[in-house]
Amino acid sequence: MADSQVILDKVTEIIRELFDEYDGPVTMTTTADDIPQWDSLAHVRLMMMIEMELGVQFSTSGMLGFENLGEMVEEAAKQST
Amino acid sequence: MTNCNFPWRPPLAKDWAERLTEIEATLAEERAPDYSTVKTLANQQLGRREQLLVERLAKKLKKAALIDDAFAPMTIGLLGNRTLSYLPDPLAAAGLARGLSISSVEAPYDSVASFAFSPANCFAQSLDAVLVVLNESALASKRPLLDVSAEKEALADAEELFVALASAAKQKTGCPAIFATLPAALQVSSAELATPGSSARFRQRINLLLAEGAIEGKWLLWDQAALASRVGLENWLDPVRYHAAKIPFSLEMCPLAADNIASILAAMKGKSARGLILDLDNTLWGGVIGDDGLAGIKLGQNSPEGEAFVAFQNFVLGLRERGVVLAVCSKNTDEIAREPFREHSEMVIKEDHIAVFQANWSDKATNIKSIAETLSLGLESFVFIDDNAAERERVRQELPLVSTIEVGEDPSFYIERIAQSGQFDHLPLNTEDISRAESYGGRAAAAEIRAKIGNYDDYLTTLEMRMTISPFDDVGRARITQLINKSNQFNLTTRRYGEEDVRAIENDPDQLGWQVRLDDKFAQHGMIGVVIVRQDSKEWMIDTWLQSCRVLERGVEQRVMDSLFEEAAKAGVENIVAQYIPTDRNKMVSSFYSDMGFNVDSENDDGSVDYSCSVQDYEPHRTFIDVSLEK
Questions:
Q1: Alpha carbon distance, N-terminus to C-terminus of chain B
Q2: CATH number assigned to the domain comprising residue B80
Q3: Which of B48, B60, B82, B106 has the most A C-beta neighbours within 10 Å, making it the best mutation to test the interface with A?
Q4: Which ipTM did the prediction report?
């Protein structure tokens, strides 16, 4: 299992790239509500970018079910070695 | 699947980010950034990040209404039974790369049936095309396996839907429908196509039905099935997000899909390429005709490469049949360049097929311009094919509107890259298209323009050339001997020496043997020149001066000559003498010594010319090569 902080750093980088108008903090408790550009379309794109960058795969059931960024990061950390 | 979605596009430029910043600065000043600058930026092997940035740029350009008039505006409707919301941004980006400004209007979710069969109009504006992407579930009612009549009925229903959608598009938005073909289905058995009612069979029959309708002019096609099979079905599909996000194909494939669709839109706007300009040596055949001769070039059954070149020539001739006009642009002596066309039995392309034949020693960009002028076509109508990365770079710098496809240097990939590029995309052909190439042939006259165009020095600087000059040695001997015996064109005296002669020169204090190597930022060219000088205390005589034709017009000969005179000056030599001996192959260097600053001493009966140049009077040339001289 990979270090959550390392994963969060990578995810943060992707979020900065994708949501270029947002410059607030990115933490484990960040949710889509915090970032105006993070709509349902962008969500799918974000998930894809994270999958490609980290070499992980989110499940069909998990795709829309994360409460916050932390849950996504933990799931990615679980899959990374 | 390769890492890069767009292998046919130029590699990402080192200064890509700076160019983007410049474009954005222009936008900030409320001026429309230049057409070819924007197009060039978008038409590169974009990584994920650059793709995102081009998509954003496309949005900004449209929002600020500061898009160059040269971009053809197009508005297309998107209609499907899965979400197509991920297409508009990549479509806008792909449009920039093809000279289009594409705006998309998405139909609300699940409005296929109402658009087709009710007066409701989900678009409410006039469009240039309606792209319809339906999957099997939108088309097929339940079909029990082996029930042939149920299959027939499902096909009839689907056709009815297509016809209704096409006529709705025409009536409600005044434009044609473009239907996506259906990608192949994953197979349960190898007998899918022979199993009525199976998905695989149904999809194939739907695709044929769509093809027939396109022939009849009822609608246009986006061959999604062909693209999916090109990248592989496993890459094309994303089962998780198909269910979780209702996407018809993988998001990762959106830039490629968008480019594929944009090439159809470009064809609708008449932006497809109409001409193909071909280099010759190592592009149409293997090797250098001027050096290797008719029997030496690789073409046909004599080698694997030779077969690949024949396959490529057949492909090119196939393009011509579709109305593409062919031209040749090659650094060669005209007569020699025409030899294979006239005399090589394996040559598929003949002289008659070439509308304009430009074989000379000037710069390729200049020749391409003259080809365009001769054919009265804009530069943007041309695709240029050359195996040489430096030539491609030069043409891209000078003529950014010409599509210089990244074919690589292996002839086995030329066809693939050109096909993938979509540059020759066209709508269903008519007989007029077929006869077009012939008419160009009739109009074209032989053209010859030798005027140089600007910035050549800048180009040479960007090549970052490094030259090494070293005395003959063990390592170089074999290649030196090969060059001495093979070089015909850039060879002043055409004197042949064997390996033992070369070894003798190495050990002779009265002879100077130089081997010249060149590297640049694109390639290590290896040994590209050989010079042999007979040394006397007061006078040196250039016995042999030859160069490979791979690196012409780079200042190589000037730089070597400068070095020779520097060495002569150090040795206290007063004079250098030289000779040109004409053959039927070396006309290109007939004025070599005059150009270098030598004076004619005598013109002899056998056609040879003696030259001399005093070391004191010699003027060094302006070159752009770093040289290191080993002793």
A1: 49
A2: 3.40.50.1110
A3: B48
A4: 0.86
